[in-house]
Structure formats: C-alpha cells, structure tokens
Amino acid sequence: MDFDFIVLATLATVGRIFALIGLSIVTGWLLAYLCIESRAFENVYVPLVNVFESIPVIGFLPLVLVAFVLSIPRHVLYS
After folding, report:
1. I need a surface site. Which of 29, 60, 64, 70 has the fewest CB within 10 A?
2. Helix count (H) and strand count (E) of the chain?
3. How far is CA 20 from CA 3, 17, 49, 57, in A?
4. What is the DSSP secondary structure assignment for residue 58, as one 8-state letter?
5. Going by C-beta distance under 8 Å and a sequence separation of 6 or more, which residues neighbour residue 46?
C-alpha cells in the first residue's frame, strides 16, 4: 500500500471521529434542553434512557453487524 493513502485514510478516520464526537455533544445538549423545557418529553425520554442503559453494549452488536452487511454492495459480497 502507498504511504500517502495510509496517511489520508488515517486523517479521514480521525476527522470522522472528531465530527461524531461533536455531533454527540450537540445532540446531548439538545436533548438536555428539551428535557429542561418540556416535562412531557422528559417523562418519555428519561425512562427510555434508563431501559437502554440496562442493555449491555454487546447486545447491540447483532444489529450493527446486520446493518453493516446490508450496506455492502452485492457485487462485492458475491465476487
């Protein structure tokens, strides 16, 4: 593999990581604001978060794997 390609791929990955960290911070602020402003939203959102906190992260792995496999084009899978 070409060194330039590896450097660009690494920079793209790091860029995605920081972009998603920023997105998660903004999403957290938005959800917190909605909970503060709307009692109805808080009554729905907080119990939902409590349920998802009780599920181990490994429990979401099958869903992620299925989504990943379905995102691969067929010509790549069957070539």
Report:
1. 70
2. 4, 0
3. 26, 5, 20, 18
4. G
5. 35
Residue 30 belongs to what domain range? Answer: 3-77
Per-residue pLDDT of 3-19, as tens digits, reads: 889 999 999 999 999 99
The Cα–Cα gap between 79 and 74 comes to 8
Length in residues, the chain:
79
| Residue found by looking up tokens 């604001």 in the block | 33
DSSP secondary structure string, 33-50? HHHHH-HHHHHHHHHHHH
Helical axes 3-37 vs 39-54, angle rounded to 10°: 130
pLDDT tens, N- to C-terminus, the chain (79 residues): 688 899 999 999 999 999 999 999 999 999 999 999 999 999 999 999 999 888 888 888 898 899 988 888 877 767 6
Single-letter amino acid code for the residue at 30: L
